[in-house]
């Protein structure tokens, strides 16, 4: 199994870039909670071992690596809430989160490496899209780890305010237990009303009350 490496960053540095940011988002698929993007600039001579796609790491390893990145790197995170997700749609909301994450870096990057196959239209710096970037590019892997850790922490906090949906374990994703809780407990202010399972329940409730 191949691991992410620093070749995308090295290519940009060789072309004259000084600060190369990896950018990734997490939380496109959940029915509840924000979509979160992180941007991370790794220093070539100081990269921790074990950076990988956040989904391939244990929670403990993810937390250790995220804490290291947040202590030693230029990094930024942006959360887009459910109101903006429902207004913009999840595709545009996730791209807005990426733009805000890049804008929040201490040093404006000369080049951004974006996970996926599209570059956000409003990104203010030169960029390239890297398909499956979190498994191929160390800076994107670092961004995926930070984004996941911080979004998961939000969902754990929201789970305490709205018990019964299992957000502390499912992070708002549409698991069978979460979908059943939606039917049993109803829709919270943190659910994405534009997502079909939530929208269908709201439509059903409206029909029942008419």
TrEMBL record:
Statement: the UniProt record of this protein carries the keyword Hydrolase: yes
Top EC class of this enzyme: hydrolase
Gene: rnhB
Sequence ranges assigned to domain RNase H type-2 in this UniProt record: 18-207
Name of this protein: Ribonuclease HII
Gene Ontology biological process terms from the UniProt entry: DNA replication, removal of RNA primer; mismatch repair
Catalytic activity entry: Endonucleolytic cleavage to 5'-phosphomonoester
Function as written in the Swiss-Prot or TrEMBL entry: Endonuclease that specifically degrades the RNA of RNA-DNA hybrids.
Cofactor(s) the protein needs: Mn(2+); Mg(2+)
Family membership: Belongs to the RNase HII family.
UniProt xrefs under HAMAP family: RNase_HII_B
Compartment annotation: Cytoplasm
EC number: 3.1.26.4
A GO molecular function held by the record: RNA-DNA hybrid ribonuclease activity
Keywords: Cytoplasm, Endonuclease, Hydrolase, Manganese, Metal-binding, Nuclease
Cofactor note: Manganese or magnesium. Binds 1 divalent metal ion per monomer in the absence of substrate. May bind a second metal ion after substrate binding.
Originating organism: Paracoccus alkanivorans
Binding site for a divalent metal cation: 24-25, 115
GO cellular component: cytoplasm; ribonuclease H2 complex
């Amino acid at each position: 199994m191949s691991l992410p490496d620093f070749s995308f960053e090295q290519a940009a540095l060789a072309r004259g870039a000084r600060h190369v940011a990896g950018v990734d988002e997490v939380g496109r698929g959940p029915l509840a909670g924000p979509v979160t993007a992180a941007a991370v600039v790794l220093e070539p001579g100081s990269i921790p071992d074990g950076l990988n796609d956040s989904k391939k790491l244990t929670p403990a390893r993810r937390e250790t690596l995220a804490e290291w990145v947040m202590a030693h790197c230029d990094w930024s995170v942006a959360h887009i809430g459910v109101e903006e997700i429902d207004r913009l749609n999840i595709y545009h909301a996730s791209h807005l989160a990426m733009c805000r994450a890049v804008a929040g870096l201490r040093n404006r990057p000369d080049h951004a490496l974006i996970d996926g196959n599209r570059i956000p239209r409003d990104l203010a710096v030169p960029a390239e899209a890297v398909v499956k970037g979190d498994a191929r590019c160390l800076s994107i892997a670092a961004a995926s780890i930070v984004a996941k850790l911080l979004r998961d922490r939000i969902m754990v906090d929201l789970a305490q305010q709205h018990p019964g949906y299992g957000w502390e374990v499912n992070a708002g994703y549409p698991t069978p237990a979460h979908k059943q809780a939606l039917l049993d407990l109803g829709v919270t202010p943190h659910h994405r009303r534009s997502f079909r399972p939530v929208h269908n329940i709201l439509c059903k409730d409206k029909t029942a009350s008419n």
